[in-house]
Amino acid sequence: xxxxxxxxxxxxxxxxxxxxxxxxxxxxxxxxxxxxxxxxxxxxxxxxxxxxxxxxxxxxxxxxxxxxxxxxxxxxxxxxxxxxxxxxxxxxxxxxxxxxxxxxxxxxxxxxxxxxxxxxxxxxxxxxxxxxxxxxxxxxxxxxxxxxxxxxxxxxxxxxxxxxxxxxxxxxxxxxxxxxxxxxxxxxxxxxxxxxxxxxxxxxxxxxxxxxxxxxxxxxxxxxxxxxxxxxxxxxxxxxxxxxxxxxxxxxxxxxxxxxxxxxxxxxxxxxxxxxxxxxxxxxxxxxxxxxxxxxxxxxxxxxxxxxxxxxxxxxxxxxxxxxxxxxxx
Length: 330
Fold this sequence. Notes:
This protein has helices spanning about 10-20, 20-25, 70-80, 95-110, 110-115, 155-160, 165-190, 200-205, 275-280, 320; strands spanning about 60, 85, 125-130, 145-150, 210-215, 230, 235-240, 250, 260, 270, 290, 300-305. By secondary structure, the protein is α+β, with helices and mostly antiparallel strands.
């Protein structure tokens, strides 16, 4: 496809989605300017005068995670910031580096190989190649592609069909990550007076695990586009592994400013999602965040969305309301 042709919206969607080229394909054809479909309205672009450099989200050391002070730090961060980073969490740095590298390797595959994992081509519904967020419905597209996985540790027949170039690295990461996720949820729920996570509660807080390999290609006009527009997650919690490029910004606790979340080698970024905000009756905060893109480097990140089971029903926890607190949600 020529540079001129991608200016037509219909041809652009065909190139990105139907042909499976994605934003990666756009970044390879020598664009001097992003297509209009990717240009964010002025009010949705990151205003660099709103960046708050004097504040940063907490970094919590989990090396002694049974220490009550560590649990207190996690719950305090969930209440004030909705975001925090964790270090010494027990996942080896090589496991983290390998899954980031796998993200790069998948998106370095020829388009003919990547295309095999488009929704209509994929050998299993548990892995799909996607572009932007909902490209057929969005007025403005996001500058990213991602490989979406539904993770089930007991479903080997499905995971066997994941891309060879990244399958083992994703599965190894998830094996380690699940232990950290369970520990974090135990701490966060204990902070809400929940003594034990039974099977019913487990189905609500972590009934479904989604892991994405997100690729943000180099962008000719990063100030006009967005890797992810401002949003909050619908998860219970999200656990993000980011590479060293950076670009994640979170809303400051009070005010309209934005705080950069700097990459820390070996760290994982944790944020509270809408589900846990509801279950905590607004004690924990699901906070807006966004991703900017880079003119000089491709960026890869690996979020794990810890979601309810599809049939889960939830509201403020009884333990939160037992002292007569008024529920804000049904």
